[in-house]
Each structure stands twice: as structure tokens, then as C-alpha cells.
Prior knowledge:
Helix content is about 40%, strand content about 20%. It contains twelve helices and eleven strands.
Amino acid sequence: MTPDNKISRIQELVYEIRIGEVMQKDVITINPQTNMSELRGILREKRISGAPVMDGDKMVGIISIEDFIKWLADRENDCPISEKMSKDVKTLYADEPLTHAVNKFERFGFGRFAVIDRQSRRLLGIITKGNIVEGLLKKLEIDHYKEEEVYCRRVEHFFEDILADKVVLLFQYDVAGHDFKRAGEGASRLKASLKRLGLDPQIVRRVAIATYEAEMNLVIYTEGGQIRARVEPHEIFVKVADSGPGIPDVQKVLRPGYSTAPEWIRNLGFGAGMGLNNILKCASKMDLRSEVGKGTQLYIRVDTKDGATSETN
Length: 313
Ligand SMILES: Nc1ncnc2c1ncn2[C@@H]1O[C@H](COP(=O)(O)OP(=O)(O)OP(=O)(O)O)[C@@H](O)[C@H]1O
Ligand SMILES: [Mg+2]
């Protein structure tokens, strides 16, 4: 199949949805004895552009604003609407698919169709193009929510469906030091992967921000290292490790605003001394360990059922 003849969801829906589902049910009808001069007032008051004309239980025609305009333009005398209405009423059955309505709108160019019951032929409602659009949008919205729901529960199913005492997903990204062109790539690839797993967007965002800040520190202050993310049913654990130069005073670097970033790094927009604090805000728990000359390890845990806030040690 080429992309051109692919069936869209809309095309599918016009076959699925019945006219009765989208039509207006509380129809305002007009008596055939009503005078043309009264029509404008009625249509305006009821905020409609046309209505079926009913003689008791029987539908005898349809009158619309177009008929009124024509009557005005022709400067004819006042008369009952039964003389100006269209008597050849095109109807649709409530159990027909929407596509029939779409076709009839195209073929006849009318603004509205009366919808009747197939057996009793009783008037059930009226359908306009607006009703069709509204009905389709509503269905598409429901589709969208259903999809989101399925998507969000995917990770839960994933862990439930696999038979093991413990299931762990591991993602690893290598980070090159001083490579500003690729800086942030690891965090953004991890974010995309977690999203695809169907994790809560809020959780994904927190992991992504924390990982990004840690990755940037690797790019700026080290020769490179590794991001490892471990996804478990109830938590995501990210370890960002490098092999030097290490941090002499771990407590000091955790202070908001503390930074050793040189001028040229600050000119790139980094070096506010807020990265580690941002990580702290995103994490359920954060642990920074470092040894000068050896390297630094940052452990970030985000509980998947957790709201926000954090603790350090
Ligand atoms: N992996 C690391 N290796 C060595 N030093 C680090 C490492 N990570 C952070 N640091 C030190 O900790 C300081 C504070 O880091 P933090 O991420 O909080 O702020 P920043 O990187 O200076 O500025 P910002 O993140 O706001 O752009 C850094 O300036 C740097 O001296
Ligand atoms: Mg930083």
C-alpha cells in the first residue's frame, strides 16, 4: 500500500460511526401553517438555520434560511412556509454509517438532512456537517486517551509478563569529555527510551533532567565516562561515573552557586553552580562519591511511584 491509499482513522470512523450517534436529537420542528414572515424570528430565536416541517406526526418538508432569503429576494407576498419549503425531503436512517451522510452532503449540497427511523419512519433527529465534524472529533479524542492509557501501562505489563524473580533493564551511554557537539546526547537517548517504555512522563522528565546535568559535568570537567540507567519495576537508578579528576570537597560542590567553571565555559551558558542542585530536586535520592585523581560517581534514584523531593547522603 502506498501512503496515498492508506486508510486514515477518519475514513475508518465514517464507516464505524452511525448517523444516530452524532445527530442532534432535540429537533426543533415548524408547523406548515407558519408564515414566511415569522420564519426569520424563529430561526434566530432558536439559533438554527433550518428545520423539518411537521404536520402532526408526519414530516412534510424542510425549511431553511436559504428558502427565507430567496423569498425575501423575490419580494413575494407573505405565505405559509408549506409553499416555500422543499418537499422533496432527503432523509437518512439513524442506523446508516456516517459515510452515507457525507456522500449525500456532497451530492445534494444541502445544509441538513432529517434522520428517521427505518421501520416507523418517525423523525428522530437532524444532521448537519457540523454534527459530523463534532462526532469525529469526539471519537478521535477518545481514541487518543485510550492510546495514552495503553501506552502508560506498557511498562507495568512488561514487568508483569516476564517470568523471573527479578527483572532489570539496563541502558548504557558513553560520554566523551569536552565534546560539546554531542553533549547531552546520552540523556536525550535515555529519555526517548524511557518514554518508549511507557513510563510516566513526569518520572521520565525528572530522570532526563538529572541525567543531563550529570552528563554535562562529565563533558565539562572530565575526560569522559559512562551513564548507566537501571530500570526496575519501582525505581530507576542512574549511575554517572568518570575516571578523573575527582572532587576535593564533595560538600562544597553541593552548595548552590558553587562552580569552578572557567570563563569560557560560563560564556557557553554553563557554570551557574546549579547542576547538582537540580539533580537533587529531581531525584528521590542522590549520592555523590569522589576521589581526587581517581574519579567521581554520582548515583541518582528516582522512584517511579514517587511525587518529587529528595534526600542526600
Ligand atoms: N564529575 C565531576 N568531576 C569533577 N568535578 C565535578 C564533577 N561534577 C561536578 N564537579 C564540580 O562541581 C561543581 C558544581 O557542579 P554543578 O553541576 O552543581 O555546577 P556547574 O557545573 O559548575 O554549573 P551548572 O551545572 O549550573 O552549569 C563544578 O563546578 C565542578 O567543580
Ligand atoms: Mg554542572
